[in-house]
TrEMBL record, chain A:
Record's bilayer topology term: Multi-pass membrane protein
Residues spanning the membrane: 17-36, 77-99, 111-130, 165-186, 226-245, 271-293
Keyword Transmembrane: yes
Compartments in which it is found: Cell membrane
Native organism taxonomy: Bacteria, Bacillati, Bacillota, Bacilli, Bacillales
Organism, as annotated: Cohnella hashimotonis
Protein's name in the database: Sugar ABC transporter permease
UniProtKB/TrEMBL annotation, chain B:
Residues covered by the ABC transmembrane type-1 domain: 68-260
Keyword hit for Magnesium: no
Main location: membrane
Name of the protein this chain belongs to: Carbohydrate ABC transporter permease
Species classification: Bacteria, Bacillati, Bacillota, Bacilli, Bacillales
Subcellular location: Cell membrane
GO CC annotations, alphabetized: plasma membrane
Similarity-based family: Belongs to the binding-protein-dependent transport system permease family.
Membrane topology listed for this record: Multi-pass membrane protein
GO biological process: transmembrane transport
Transmembrane segments: 12-35, 67-91, 103-124, 136-159, 180-202, 243-265
Amino acid sequence: MATGPTLWAKIWSSRKAYLFLSPLFLGLLLFCYYPPVSGIYHSFFDWDSVGKAVFIGLDNYRELFRDQVFLDSIPTAFLILVPRLIIGIVVPLIAAEMIFNVRQKKLQSAYRVLVLLPIVAPGVVGLLIWKNIYDPTNGLLVSLLRGTGLIAPDRVIDWLGSADLIIPSIIFMGFPWIGGTSVLIYMAGLMNISSEVIESSELDGAGLLRRIWHIDLPHLMGQVRFFLIFGIIGGLQDFGIQIVLTSGGPGYSTYVPAYYMYIEAFTAGRMGYATTIGTVMFAAIFLLSLVAYRGMKTETN
Amino acid sequence: MTQYRRLPQWFLNAALVALLAMLLYPLGFTLWGAFKSDVAFTATRWYPTLPLRVGNVSSAFGSIWRYLLNTVFVAGVGTAGMLLIASLSAFTFARMKFFGKEWLYMLVLALMMIPGALTLVPGYMLYKTFGLLNSYWALILPLVTGGPIFGIFLLRSFFESIPKDYFEAAQMDGAHDFKLYYRIALPLCIPIMGTLAIMQIVGAWNEYLWPMITIADHEKLTIAAGLLISFTGQYSSNMPVTFGGYLVASVPLILLFTFTNRYYVQGLLSTAIKL
């Protein structure tokens, strides 16, 4: 081939860059590229936890789409994901706007630090504290409701143990939902808007809400898109609440696909079936984030 | 009219203080919960009281110091390795011209889109095949191999924003590429590396799923998994000691945060994280 020598010459002349990148790609090849390929590959196998794999074609997929626990776990995942996603995008934005509009610089930077403070407690601790807040007999929520007379003084509410309350309880968890890192990412975006733009909008008589709607929001679309896409990717896979608080219960009411995958792999030892769930989730997450990305893109351009 | 255009500052401050109070209440709850006696906890758990029972904290410390030590070791080694690889790679992508650059960069970024759901089980089987389960390797290697991906994403745009003159002047003096990296690029990116380091350390601190799966020997568990295992079992009836455990588990992060929050805030505010 005519391009042969020049191609090799190009590669040879880039050898230094490749040398610098070699530690990265060695690790990536083995621990980041191989596992997803292996996952998709083994979704066609009966793979046990010892590592013995027997090819079974599409049997795992056939079983999965008749598996009622899996089918029911899909709507549950969205019931939890969608509200939490909206909350996770909107609430930090409101908080960022509030802090951004504080004029006293010292107060502003104090708020910025305080809003981050919750990261000092491990996430597990946060969940376990919510377990206390939701305690049916003397948790904070029940005590507050009793104290304000909204419920009878001897009333017991099992927030995490009743099938009707569990999903709202999970959504409410983390109130007031101000993620410090998200607030700062939004603030970085707000600070990038030139003050001339803001001042001239104010001279034109635009009020605060109009300014936020017409100037701030369009500037922050990149951040919103970031939170949306990584929120979908992360949210659909998250099963921390199930592991720490609910074990998927009551009944199967908090089973989400990711938790089901975990159970199938690490308590039932069905590695092949678990990778099938993982592969289906991958396809769904990929499509959803693509749709979200496209949808957001046309809106802003 | 003008006072209607902007929210009055007193209102803004009052609303923020109220929100922050709600946000920080669980932390306060942990703090005073850790210093109560069993009886006091039942009666007055929602607000602080005297006397302080320091004994809770020390008995909690006795049962989790091992997890803390493990976490410091794992997060420390893992983060150092991650920072080295991420900064060198980001520098290469930002500052060097080479064949296949954008293509290789996309290969790295594409990994941010690979969900953990797809890789959890095969990843576990891979570590099993290599005989790395139940060892510190199983905890450190994921930080060093997967950790740099986001770091490269963040640092590349940062390195690209450094004015060319900095590097050209040094090149005139005959500095080679590696020297440009560690003499110019590295010192400039220390604040943002601080941000990355904190993200990674906090991530390692919070990770419980992977350690619970890969580590059978409790002596090697990191803190989040250790807390889940020891405090949902042995101490679950003694709430003050449990909260003492939460508090002790948070102390190293509190220290880290106290000394580095400026870098973290600055780093986040100086980079545009968006899509």
